[in-house]
From TrEMBL:
Pfam families given in the database record: SBP_bac_1
Full protein name: Probable sugar-binding periplasmic protein
InterPro entries assigned: Bact_solute-bd_prot1 (IPR050490), SBP (IPR006059)
Source organism (scientific name): Paraburkholderia gardini
PANTHER family the UniProt entry points to: ARABINOSE-BINDING PROTEIN-RELATED (PTHR43649), BINDING PROTEIN COMPONENT OF ABC SUGAR TRANSPORTER-RELATED (PTHR43649:SF28)
Cleavable signal peptide: 1-24
Primary location group: periplasm
């Protein structure tokens, strides 16, 4: 009797607290670019979680892989005085927004983040020593996704070098399969090019794309990179121009496409289509990149609301939830990524994610854990944009590799 009275009392307290938070909580307006099947499923976990905590979720999803359109929409919202409660932003743009004086400090929600995150990632979530961004997960970029039935059909194995890659691509072509499923959008062109740069070794990548060292950018090795990219292009199908990334992934899911170079959000699409790794598809490090890991980390930043400099209770709850172990796990299971938090168990994840975690830890030690230029983890928008223009122009013209290299080196000087 006594116990049941206590539980009634507890239930009533919870009810009152719950009612209070539903009535009192502010709506959360959230801008992001997660609109594909796998992406939507992943962000819905957060929406449902915030709804349960009593917050209304106002969704501003801006379609467009890699977020260029979303970043334009965000600028418009902030300039017109309608800054969202939270927005998906990453890399140096986090500090850019902070330096505009429009973000709030979320230190209160981040008390255990440092202890459980890779230092290289944790540091980028701060401005002037304070947390202003909450990270979702680690995506690996240097993956090659291969349709397993196609691979078996042509009697191939996952390629570990470029000669092996081109030999497999020839087999796919001979079997009437589009060897490389690609979407001709600047950021997807950059994904391939950056991965080929990485295949020259982590040191080459660092000197070329992190340090923007002119000698490396104009080296014979860089000419080779452009030659390889030019050859990869000959394996695209006719309809590649402007294709969205998830439609290219759908080609590999159905088997009309043999392979795709793409970050592991592609795995979110495979999972969403009930496809299993090693059964329906293979994930392999792109040729020549098994000792390296190019990464991008999605994060939310939080904007001042109603002219107040402090974070609102809803923003603090949102930041806390994003980095909570349960959310970190479920989000990455749907998204194809791995949790930021190193204390989240990996037993529910597939082999690709487990490999990603092992390689993450190994490359953090070896120096092969590198920020992706293609995904906004390096340099100002002006510099990254100029390099993207040079690469995408090369991929969509008959420019020779030496000319491509010259334009790249000039682009790297844009400030
Ligand atoms: C983001 C991913 C997203 C991908 C495609 C990348 O910039 O980091 O989360 O799935 O773009 O939209």
């Amino acid at each position: 009797m006594k116990r049941s009275l206590t539980s009634v009392a507890t239930a009533m307290t919870l009810l009152v607290a719950g009612t209070h938070s539903v009535l009192g909580a502010e709506p959360l307006s959230v801008l992001h670019w997660w609109t594909s099947g796998g992406e939507s499923k992943a962000i819905r976990v957060l929406k449902d979680d915030m709804n349960k905590q009593g917050y209304q979720w106002k969704d501003f999803a801006v379609a467009g892989g890699a977020g260029a359109a979303a970043m334009t929409a965000l600028k418009t919202q902030v300039i017109s005085g309608n800054a969202p409660s939270a927005a998906q932003v990453k890399g140096p743009l986090i500090q850019d927004w902070a330096s505009q004086g429009v973000l709030v400090n979320i230190d209160q929600s981040a008390t255990d983040w440092k202890a459980h995150s890779p230092a290289q990632i944790d540091n980028t979530m701060k401005a002037n020593g304070h947390y202003v961004a909450a990270p979702f997960s680690v995506h690996r970029i240097n993956w090659l996704w291969i349709n397993k039935a196609d691979l078996d059909k042509v009697g191939g194995t996952p390629p570990t070098t470029w000669p092996e890659f081109f030999a497999l691509a020839d087999k796919f072509r001979a079997a009437g399969i589009t060897a490389v499923a690609h979407g001709g959008q600047p950021w997807q062109d950059m994904t391939i090019w950056e991965t080929v740069v990485l295949s020259q070794g982590p040191d080459f990548y660092r000197k070329a794309l992190v340090d923007l060292d002119q000698k490396t950018l104009t080296s014979p090795q860089m000419v080779q990179v452009f030659e390889t990219v030019q050859k990869i292009r000959t394996y695209f199908d006719k309809g590649y121009h402007g294709r969205d990334w998830n439609l290219a992934t759908a080609m590999v899911i159905s088997g009309s496409g043999g392979m795709q170079f793409m970050g592991d959000w592609a795995k979110g699409e495979f999972a969403n289509a009930n496809r299993k790794s090693d059964v329906d598809y293979v994930c392999a490090a792109a040729p020549g990149t098994s000792n390296a890991f190019t990464y991008t980390v999605d994060a939310f930043v939080f904007f001042q609301q109603n002219g107040k400099k402090e974070a609102t209770p809803g923003q603090l709850a949102l930041a806390r939830t994003i980095m909570s172990p349960d959310f970190q796990q479920q989000f990455s299971l749907y998204k194809g990524s791995i949790p930021i938090r190193l204390d989240v168990p990996m037993d529910k994840f597939d082999d690709c994610a487990k490999k990603s975690r092992t390689d993450e830890l190994a490359t953090i030690k070896s120096g092969g854990f590198l920020p992706s230029l293609a995904f906004g983890e390096l340099h100002s928008s002006a510099t990254a944009g100029a390099i993207t223009d040079a690469v995408t122009n090369f991929m969509n013209s008959n420019e020779d590799p030496e000319e491509g290299v010259r334009k790249l080196a000039a682009a790297a000087k844009v400030k």
